[in-house]
Description:
This protein is mostly helical and 249 residues long. The protein contains 9 helices and no strands. The longest helix is centred in the C-terminal third of the chain and has 42 residues, at 196-237. The chain is globular.
Amino acid sequence: MSKFDSPTAIEIVLPTACDRSGDSRLDQPSPCESAFDVASYWVTAILGVSVAGAGYGLPIFLVGAVFGFAIAGFFSVALVVPFAMAVRAVCGTWRHPLAAPCFGGLVGFASFVACGRVTIVHPADWLGFVLGPLFASFVGQAGAYIATRGELIEMILDRRRRPAAPWRFSIRSALIGTASLAITLTLLQWRRPLDLRDLTFVAIWLPYQAGTLCLFARWGERAAERIAQIRAVSRETGGYAILAREARS
């Protein structure tokens, strides 16, 4: 039998769509992400943010919890499509490790600003601003992070094995981002027009949102590192070391 007849002599490796890099990732839907995965990710994020809204309103008893769940769910459903499109335009994929926490922070802030009027006249009013839109933003981030934590860890581990393409800004991404911002501002003024004071609050919230996202990014990296270590030990020991550790705990 010649070497050409051997089944192991020649191995043809075809480049998969997931190995493509460059502009193709921005021009085509990511083949690594099925429609079910994308829909599942964002539906889970919506549920996490809605439950977080219920938790935020829980101090006002059942009425507050129901109202918080409803208003957070409304803004989540209204903003998820333009936000996901903005993520797709900037990152080249429909999902990103920080997409859900960023989405949750936006929904939390928008829900509070649209439903209540924050005024800062006296120094004590800053406490209401911190416990109001800023805390609502953090609660939304936490709800989305907890709900999508499993997918977030898998995305971080996948990026370590196969680095993602760098972020690229184009005219299309700028147009999509502008449309998303317009939709967000439209929802913010569904009860009353926005004034300069509201835009000042937005300017304060933006660096706060970025700072808290760095915190969730750090937590996600630590969780992914722990999962990677557990899987490495499981591959080496067949899982017995992990079972023994859980038995001792």
